Amino acid sequence: MYIPSRSAAKPFLCILTLSLFIIVSYFYLTEPPRNSKEGRPPHVRDEDDDITPPPGFPRNRQNPPEPRENLYVKEGVTCPALRDEAITDQIQSVCRGQGPRDPSDRHSNTTEYWENILENHIINSRSLIYDSERRFIYVSVPKVGSSTWKSMMYVDRFNTTTASMHDDMGRCCAITEGRDLPGDLGEYFTFTIIRNPWARLYSAYRDKFYRYPAFANFKYTRQLLLNIRGIPPSRATKVAAIRRELERQRITFTEFVAYIVGYPWESHNVHWSPWNKLTVPCAIQYDYVGHFEHMDRVFEAVRHRVFRAPDVQLDHKLKTHADKNEILDAYRQVPSDLLDVLYRRFEQDFVIGGYNSNVNCI
Description:
By secondary structure, the protein is mainly alpha-helical. It is about 45% helix and about 5% strand. The chain is built from 16 helices and 4 strands. Helix 2 packs across helix 16.
């Protein structure tokens, strides 16, 4: 029997080690989606889910072909006035045939009603904020002023601030499965706020991708760099390599849009999921839905129902928006075919909010 010498065995061991590394890397990057929490709906994914794209995913869209005329940023359009009272009619129109629920359903076994909402929809339990003393339910949506609204509610309720507002509000004041909920929850004033999808998506990009280029371990950053920018898979799992890539070139807004249209909404982060999927207006009977663009009007409509302090003031953060020209410049760089798909993905949000499809109307 031939026994190779130690010097002859070294190349063999190196090849064997490299082969094992490639096999392990392959299975790591192509691991199928999974849900680690028992009983969670199949479309709700964990932070450590796979980063592989679905079939037909568009790759390397940072250098797209010459686009046709971008009608979404065409100037000279007439923008409709936003009326809060029209939102209810639009919800009825969109939900015709599937709801919304009859008001009597909401008032019958309220605990079961809200637990059913949590079980069958992609609503994060921390987004359903309630106050049994003030008798209201606020359905918060990321990038629609939700952090500021929660902060104002927390200060009003506990007369102090908190550095971990989302977690603290979730522990004290959120409708969660297993919590002993008030029996008359169905009688509570229920409200939420809607925002122009174009502006909301740009806010999500600026907050989660552009402002934090060093956030290299963000699952969605890894997905985007691998499947849109096309970095080698061997680098898509290495934090240091991703950080160097982001330092070389930040993620562009066009890449962000290509990423959104390439993945089904169910796999998205709540910051860029459609508003109608996070608020399920065909299942939840709202007493009031206001426009983010008219936050002063929203505040006046709900302040006496929500806040204890009679002299509470609207937080200045809710009055400041991203620069319109900055948003327009970003959308001008996006090919029209991508914007077509993006609009269809968020079309119900445009319809319910009464928003024009033109970005100039933000």
